[in-house]
Amino acid sequence: MTDRFRQLNAEDTPAYYALVHAAYASARELGINFDAATASEQQMQCHIATHGVYGMFRDDELVASVTLRYPWGPLPGPFGLPHIGWFATAPHYRGQRLGVILLDWLELRVLHDQLRAPAYSLGTAESHPWLIPLYEAMGFEKASKKDLGKGHITVYMKKTIYPVHTR
Fold first, then answer.
1. Which residues pair with 122 in a beta bridge?
2. Contact assessment for residue 123 and residue 135, using Cβ atoms and an 8 Å cutoff
3. Is residue 164 in a domain?
4. Which backbone phi and psi does 131 adopt, to 5 degrees?
5. Strands (E) located in 42-165
6. Beta carbons within 10 angstroms of residue 11's beta carbon
7. How far apart are CA 34 and CA 24, in angstroms?
8. Given this model, what pLDDT does residue 167 score?
9. By residue range, what is the domain housing residue 27?
10. Domain tally for the chain?
11. What number of helices (H) and strands (E) belong to the chain?
12. Does 105 reside within a domain?
């Protein structure tokens, strides 16, 4: 069993589409309107082209992915920090903490080592039954709430990577 991590590209779109739609099936069943849950393959290819989308591959199978939205990009987060979204793990790997492993890799290799980001954020539905406690267990803290007109209240959460040093 070999795990690899890398940024996705256009050629990864079919595997990415299959992963995200399978992972977000439970959100669709709960009636939560996450953009990733209903995006077309063409929208996902555009998503890969306009954001940092990273994947975890196990024995060459895309098993987890996460999008990194940049403060200077087309869809910045609410705090002027890198913002993650479209976070997905293949359902047949649930419970193996692959999402945590991917996010740890992203935090160290991209957010800390490359971007030198002091923190990052994410948003999730307040009504989702398990995501907020999951993110809190990963070190995220609730920061604000907003109604984005998607049929649920979005809870924004932040995680500090390392303390900001001042002179």
1. 84, 157
2. no
3. no
4. -70, -45
5. 52-58, 61-69, 83-89, 119-125, 141-147, 153-160
6. 10
7. 8
8. 46
9. 3-117
10. 1
11. 6, 7
12. yes
